[in-house]
Amino acid sequence: MGGVECLAASKRRWVMLCILLGLGLSSLGSAIVNIALPNVSRSFASSDAATVWVVNAYQLSATVCLLPVASLAESLGLKRVYAAGLAIFVLASLGCAFAPTLPMLVSARLIQGAGAAGVAVAGVALVRVIYPRRMVSKGLALVALAVAIPGALGPTIAATILAVAKWSWLFLVNVPFGLAVPLFITAAPPDVRVARLFDLTGTALNALAFGLFVVGVGTLGIGDGRIAMGEIVAGLVCFSLFVRQQRQNPMPMLPFDLFRIPLFTLSVWTSVCSYAAQILAYVSLPFLFETGMHLSAVETGFLLTPWPFMTAVTAPIAGRLTIRYPASVICSIGLTLLAAGLLLMVFLPTTPAKWDVVWRLALCGIGFGLFQTPNNTAMMTAGPIGRSGAASGMNAAARYIGWSVGSALVSLIFGLGGDQGAIFCLVAGMVFALMGAATSSARRFR
């Protein structure tokens, strides 16, 4: 799918606005809810470990849907998949806002995650369609900002809303943006489609593999351990069957050709480890601040802001550094800084000053920003340009897999760690960051 040279600049701006809106909303959907988890827990009188599934469900659903949605986008068209994904995301936001019980809220988040997958996969690919080839990099730069800025502002937005309204308004703010769907359908260019059959067997095995594994890990500490272990083993078996089935498929969802490139594979694993470290901290820190330090949701939101803010500031600087220095070196330095910041959070004083928290989380943000742009660049340029779509799909998949595994581990650690669950999560995040740094360093020898 090359750029559409004939698309008028004015129409391109409208389409791009809708794409950025959807990507921004899906990014905000991940960043804005974490701070409200203690509020949600009190609202439904549920345990912390059970409430974490409000985050887990979103990440898990998006992860399970990414590869099938990428396949659907080729057969049904990017325009239809993006519009459907945005509509599902907005309607599910209504379901989240009015959910009467925690299981109903988790169910609505599952649907919302599926919509986010459609937006994430089709949105980035559409940038390549609506821009002329010489301007694609400009469009991708706007995408990076659309994802980074909501991540940076998410804690502050959440804190502001929670200061004046209930947590349900965190979801209701998405609804007015549903008006962008008809605008997008009208302005977007015609789709380019590929004739291919939908892989129902592969989709089912993909869902079972990720679903059983993540649910098993997440319930290991709060339910019957034998059932949880059985789910984990079943998930691993389904994953092996999924890989075998994909190898026999002439048009597989998994890009085996790219995984034969060591640089690409190591970049994927670096991404998985790094995003797992990020979500372990993002989900556990609100509990540390509100439950352990007895801070308000508003204070928590503002304290969390330095991390994503410094990530947004550092990411473009890291992009310029990538031109002069190997991505493996920059990523390793960044992830080492992230690990150091998480370790410093573990050893916070009992009654820390606000500045003690701010500079530690700012260090985490700088480290994560140094990792993000160079690693994405290495992943997207490791293979031939004709496989950019598959590389983009795996880029998103690695991110969501890391988030899903990290979120499930939060549930496990909270179930086993009790009052010290948040501290143990930070230690686990530090370990994942160091694993990512080691994996990134291995690229130097490839």
TrEMBL record:
Entry keyword Membrane: yes
Keyword Transmembrane: yes
TM region(s), chain numbering: 14-37, 49-69, 81-100, 106-127, 139-163, 169-188, 200-221, 227-243, 263-285, 305-323, 330-351, 357-375, 396-415, 421-442
Domain of life from the UniProt record: Bacteria
Cell location: Cell membrane
Keywords linked to the UniProt accession: Cell membrane, Membrane, Transmembrane, Transmembrane helix, Transport
Main location: membrane
CDD domains found in the cross-reference section: MFS_MMR_MDR_like (cd17321)
GO CC aspect terms: plasma membrane
Protein name (record): Transporter
Mode of membrane association: Multi-pass membrane protein
Major facilitator superfamily (MFS) profile domain span: 15-446
InterPro entries xrefs: MFS (IPR011701), MFS_dom (IPR020846), MFS_trans_sf (IPR036259)
GO molecular-function term, one example from the UniProt record: transmembrane transporter activity
